[in-house]
C-alpha cells in the first residue's frame, strides 16, 4: 500500500502508468542512465498464469481496495507494481539473518543471480551494502544468490522458478545437471537468450 501511494504521489497526467511515478531513480556505476522503478521486471503474466498465486494476489487486491478506496489502481496496474516488488525486493535482515523488513533498492536490484555468487548483501538498519567476495572486472560480473546456495540443486531450482520464474543455468547448476545430480525437470520459462548463463534482470 505504501509503495502504491508513493507512486501515485510521483504520478502526473503525462505518464501512462503509476509505475512511472517512482522518482528520478538510482545511479548505477557504468550505466548511462539512472535505474527507475519502471525499469524493473514485473513478471505479471507469469504470476497470473499460476492459479494459486493469482488467487492470493486477488485477496491482497481486495484488501487494498478496503484501504485505498477510490485511490486504488486497477488490477492490471496493481500487478505491475506488486510484481516489481516481489521480483526485485530485498529481505532486510539482521546479523543473524532474521528478516525484519522488505525494501526496493533500485540500484542494487540490477544484480543478477548465480548459485556461485561473486558478491553478498548485508544490512545496517535499512542501509544495504554490497561486498565483493571474488575479483570482478565490472558490474556485469557481480552476481548475488537469490537463494541458499548450499541447498541441493533440485531445491534451489524449484525455489528460484517458484519465486522468480527462471531456471538457473550457472556453472554450479549446469555441473550438477551434467553429472546427473539434478533431480528436477522444470521447463525453463526464460524469454530471452541473455538468461542462459545466469538470471538477468537487465
Descriptive account of the structure:
By secondary structure, the chain is an alpha+beta fold. The chain folds into two domains: 2-88, no CATH class; 111-195, SET domain (Beta-clip-like). The protein contains six helices and six strands. It has helices at 2-10, 44-49, 51-68, 75-88, 153-164, 171-178; strands at 90-93, 99-103, 112-113, 119-124, 127-132, 143-144. It has a two-stranded antiparallel ribbon with strand order 1-2. Strand 1 (90-93) and strand 2 form a beta hairpin. The longest helix is centred in the N-terminal third of the chain and has 18 residues, at 51-68. The chain is globular, with a radius of gyration of 18 Å.
- Overall morphology: globular
| Major β-sheet annotation | 2 strands, antiparallel
Beta-strand content estimate: 5-15%
Strand order of the biggest β-sheet: 1-2
Q: How many β-strands, per DSSP?
A: 6
Provide the succession of SSEs: HHHHEEEEEEHH
Low-confidence regions: 182-198
- Based on secondary structure, the structural category is alpha+beta
Amino acid at each position: 500500500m505504501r509503495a502504491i501511494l508513493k507512486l501515485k504521489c510521483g504520478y502526473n497526467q503525462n505518464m501512462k502508468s503509476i509505475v512511472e511515478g517512482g522518482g528520478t531513480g538510482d545511479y548505477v556505476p557504468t550505466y548511462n542512465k539512472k535505474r527507475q522503478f519502471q525499469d524493473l521486471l514485473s513478471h505479471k503474466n507469469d504470476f497470473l498464469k499460476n492459479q494459486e498465486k493469482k488467487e492470493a494476489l486477488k485477496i491482497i487486491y481486495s484488501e487494498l481496495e478496503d484501504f485505498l478506496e477510490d485511490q486504488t489502481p486497477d488490477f492490471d496496474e496493481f500487478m505491475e507494481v506488486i510484481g516489481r516488488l516481489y521480483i526485485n525486493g530485498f529481505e532486510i535482515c539482521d546479523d543473524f539473518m532474521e528478516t525484519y523488513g522488505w525494501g526496493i533498492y533500485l540500484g542494487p536490484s540490477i544484480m543478477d543471480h548465480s548459485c556461485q555468487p561473486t558478491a553478498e548483501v548485508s544490512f545496517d538498519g535499512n542501509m544495504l551494502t554490497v561486498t565483493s567476495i571474488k575479483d570482478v572486472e565490472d558490474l556485469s560480473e557481480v552476481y548475488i544468490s537469490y537463494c541458499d546456495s548450499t541447498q541441493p540443486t533440485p531445491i534451489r531450482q524449484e525455489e528460484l522458478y517458484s519465486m522468480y520464474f527462471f531456471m538457473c543455468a550457472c556453472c554450479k547448476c549446469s555441473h550438477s545437471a551434467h553429472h546427473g545430480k539434478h533431480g528436477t525437470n522444470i521447463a525453463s520459462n526464460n524469454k530471452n537468450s541473455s538468461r542462459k548463463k545466469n538470471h538477468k534482470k537487465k
